[in-house]
Amino acid sequence: MDLKTFCRSLPKIELHAHLTGSLSDATVLRLLHAKRQEGVVDLPDSAEVVLKRGHNRTLKECFEVFRILHCLTDNLVALRTITRDVIREFVEDNVQYLELRTTPKVIIGKMTKEQYIETVLDVIGEEMKANITIRLLLSVDRARGVDDAWDTLRVTKQYMSQEKYKNLICGLDISGNPNVGDLCDYIPVLEAARKDGLKLAVHVAEVLNEKETLHVLKSGLVSRVGHGSYIHHKCGGTHEMVNLVKNFSIPIEICISSNIKSGTVKSISDHHFQHWWKEGHPVIICTDDKGVFNTSLSEEFQMCAETFKLTHDDLCELCLCAVDSTFLPRNERDELRKTMQQKLQHLRKNLGNS
Ligand code: IMP
Ligand code: ZN
User: Fold this and answer.
1) Which residues form the Adenosine deaminase domain (predicted)?
2) 270 has a pLDDT exceeding 60
């Protein structure tokens, strides 16, 4: 079995996927066509060019892409479609467990945060009938200010306590342009969220920012680090930061294509994955934005294996260890581990026979 087929066949866990950033070309083109027919005015003429896939962009350009994508997805019908499409694409890629994240938005006359969350949760509920388990993290966009973050937490709590949706929401994500705003301002929101029983996935050190990174890590509130490109002392971080991550046992979500294509990490051979992996620290391979960065979880596994000379056993270990970094309660984690072990065993058996 070649590496590409092997990576596709691996039963995988995806823990860092932004809904709007995960839209495939097919979905985006369909939405764009519909908007053009409506004669939407706030869509730039060059939208098709800006959206052209796969090429490298600066972080600033990535956020321009998100602006256009948000314009295309500014209503509940589109939201329903994209949620369903993205989930099905992860199923196609043999993802067994998905923690999807998205920023609830208010669009006057079109949707409230409540309707946004409810729509995503309803589609998740429907799609779980297929071969996948899904949980939702609500994203706080650091560029939208602290008041908006409090508001998102308020609405999140409302849905956590509803019997119908209770177990589907597992945490809060802090994301958004890392060059805008200051994470330190969000600490009170994070403290309140933890008290309310939410786990926290925080984009930390996506770009170099020693003061912010130290402050957030020292808070002890972070359940998983997103990116963490400038934490390891061999990659522009410090020993103090590494010690904090290790002492608090914080797993790191690794998004290689995202880092390389947005230019926050110079080249793949410089990627911080290798240092944490060698030191046995929990790392999870993720896509971040499979649409914007023209990738898939299987391709991320393949790229990682080729660059860092990982064996089949290493790749299986990465899949299985990701179970421990999920935001599932213990009993559900145990269930998931069992399923993953069975699927991996089956794959190994096939390998032996091929
Ligand atoms: P959404 O929350 O479903 O609308 O997904 C897109 C949003 O995710 C963007 O507007 C950003 O706030 C966030 N996001 C996606 N990728 C990144 C990243 O690499 N760094 C920081 N934030 C990101
Ligand atoms: Zn992200």
Assistant:
1) 11-341
2) yes
Residues 306-327 have pLDDT tens digits of 999 999 999 999 999 999 999 9
Expressed in angstroms and rounded, the spacing between residue 21 Cα and the centre of ligand 1 is 7
Where in the sequence is the domain holding 216, given as residue range(s)?
Answer: 3-22+96-353
Name the closest ligand to CA 21.
1
State the residue for tokens 């934005």. Answer: 289
Is 118 noted as a catalytic residue in this protein? no
**Nearest bound ligand to the CA of residue 82:** 1
Contacts of 171 (CB under 8 A, 6+ apart): 99, 135, 137, 138, 198, 199, 200, 201, 223, 327
Residue 28 forms part of a structural domain: no
The CATH code of the domain that includes 205 is 3.20.20.140
Pocket of ligand 1 (CB under 6 A): 18-21, 66, 102-103, 139, 141, 175-176, 203, 206, 258, 288-289
The pTM of the full predicted model, rounded to 2 decimals, is 0.96
Residue 320 lies in a domain: yes
Taking the C-alpha atoms of residue 226 and residue 204, their distance in angstroms, rounded to an integer, is 6
Residue 230 resides in a domain: yes
Model pLDDT for residues 249-264, shown as the tens digit of each residue: 999 999 999 999 999 9
Q: Please enumerate in sequence order all residues whose Cβ is within 8 A of that of 323, keeping only pairs 6 or more positions apart, or say none.
A: 13, 97, 333, 336, 337, 340
The one catalytic residue in 206, 212, 253, 299 is 206
Q: What is the pLDDT of residues 225-252, one digit of tens each?
A: 999 999 999 999 999 999 999 999 999 9
Please report whether residue 29 resides in a domain. no
Atom number in ligand 1 closest to CA 258? 19
Helix or strand (DSSP H, E) at 82: helix 76-92
Domains identified in the chain, total number: 1
The residue type of 18 is H
